[in-house]
Amino acid sequence: MSSEYIISEPTSMDKEILQHAVQELFNPDHVLRFPDASQIHFNEVQKLSLEYKNILKIDHLWDFSSLSKLELNNNTIEKIQGLDHLINLTWLNLSFNKIEKIEGLECVQKLEVLNLSNNKISVIENMDTLENLTHFFISNNLIGQLDNVLYLRKFKNLAAVNLFGNPFLNEGDYRFFIAAYFPKLMFLDSRILDQKTRKEASIKYHYVLEKMRLEELELHQADEARQRHEAELKLHRVLSFFCESSVDLYTYSLTLMFSFLLFLVQDAFVEFLNGSSLFKNMFKDDPKAQTLHCAPGVDSLIQTFEHQMGELCTQLFEMGLAEHKRRETEVKSFFSCQEKAVTDCQEKASQMLAKFNHEHKERTEEFQQLSDPEVRKVKIDHCNDEINRLCKNLMTLEFQLVSEMEEKIKTFDSSVSDMVRHFSETAQGMFSHCRHLEDDYYQKMQKVAAEILQTVAIDTRKEDLPDNVIMLFENRDAVMDALATAHDNHLLKINDRETQLTTGIRAWKEALIKGIQDEELKRNRTNISDIHRYMDNLREQLEELI
What is the DSSP letter of 203? Predict the structure, then answer.
């Protein structure tokens, strides 16, 4: 640690602290390559040491996108934050600080080593995204419940844990407890978990572990069953969903966008239309249905109606799946074209930046050797002109991409709209057929009801009818009202299902297009902001060299 930059007063991270920390990374042999810290690009730094700086707040790390190891131990940090852009971080040391809660780790998903020892943490929590975690150190904190350590069982790659110095140590043989519940753990409190300890632990906690194993198995099986059920319905459900993705300079988060499109197009909008589901739903709330069905001749009508409705709904269901497949193919094709456009733009921008950085380095090294103020001024003006030219070229490239994407989105919108319109019109035709079937059933039921009414009225074969049917058919108006009400309810169920499908598919299309447009606007604004920030940084570096 350099003695030139010890900070006595509590402070937050700023550009000066970070530049000095980066400069310290390079040994004297490399100093010639980096005569000034301002010439070091933060996005190329892979390791950063900020120990003993009396830092209060983690901040200004957004440029360190390549950082894999971060040492922040022995500071006065009270909250874990400011790590959102460190997507490549694998090592994080926050020991000997004043942290009270585990949080702010959602984005560092590649993290393998996490050291939180000697803080004020009382609960192990909020680490669900750290699936790659192999080493976790939380010694000398305030963990009071040994059972809380079981939270770590979800990390299948965990090899080493340090828990020494927490209050739960008073609970006795916690070493056997850990060995029993973490059979794959190799090191506990910097000591190897030997076979003798593991064997004693397995004997001591045999019944508890067996019970837990069975409970976990049941939960796992229930979860698998739930996922299978959801996967089956998900293809048919109406769902509008889109997510946000973060974008760095000329880096389009296509993976997130691709997930976004797949999540949307999985909905075919024909859920519960395969078979007799709609038919059964039509009769579900009909109070007189059971009585009417007991009347002679009605059973065959019902069976015929159900069979016809089932066949028609199955056709609609299969058509919906086929249309879903067409939409899915179209959306995938769009995102594939979008990916190519963005990638091409990114490659051009990278070449442009590489060429500029090489030439800019030569220019700055050249004018640093000059002693004549007038000549230096000319060279500096030339550097500024080149920075402005780079900015203009990058903006032009971005504008070209925006124009291209606008045209692609417009074409895609038109194509998807045609598909949605075709699907909606075809479905509406099938629902219209459903209404015709209902009308036919209603008319036939009226005829059957008239015959039964006549039978009941003249007492012919009245004894062949069930009592509840006789009671219903003694009142002609009640029978006809029941049939008319049932007919209206049936049509209402058909209409509601038709509305659900047509409004759902339109809402899906609108959400999809709006989501794409919003993401494209966000990408564009972020890129423009990053370009300006990059230019400002270049100008600031140039001013510092004057």
Answer: H
Gap between the Cα atoms of 127 and 152, Å rounded:
9
Residues near 337 by beta carbon (within 8 Å), at least 6 away in sequence: 408
Can you give the pLDDT at residue 436?
95
pLDDT at 439 over 90: yes
Q: Specify which residues 49 forms β-bridges with.
A: 71
Closest CA to 361 of 394, 332, 383: 383
Rounded to an integer, what distance in angstroms lies between the CA atom of residue 397 and that of residue 391? 10
Q: From the CA atom positions of the chain, what is the Rg in Å?
A: 35
**pLDDT tens digits, one per residue of 3-19:** 344 445 677 788 888 88
266, burial (CB in 10 Å: exposed 0-12, middle 13-18, buried 19+): middle
CA distance 501 to 291: 32
Positions of E strands within 95-207:
113-115, 135-137, 160-162, 187-188, 191-192
Do the bridges between strand 187-188 and strand 191-192 make them parallel or antiparallel, or are there none, so unpaired? Answer: antiparallel
Beta strands in 27-186 (DSSP E): 47-49, 55-57, 69-71, 91-93, 113-115, 135-137, 160-162
Buried b (16+ CB within 10 A) or exposed e, 199-216: eebeeebeeeeeeeeeee
pLDDT digits (tens, 9 = 90+) for 329-352: 898 899 889 888 988 988 888 888
DSSP single-letter state for residue 546: -
Which amino acid is it at 125?
E
Which pLDDT belongs to residue 278? 87
Residues 381 and 45: their CA atoms lie apart, in Å, by 30
CA distance 100 to 102: 7
* Residue written as token pair 């049939």: 483
- Global pTM reads 0.51
Question: Is residue 212 over pLDDT 90?
Answer: no
Q: Which two tokens stand for residue 220?
A: 């796992």
Residues 55-69 have pLDDT tens digits of: 999 988 888 888 999
pLDDT-based confidence at residue 267 (cuts at 50, 70, 90): low
CB 233 within 8 A of CB 269: no
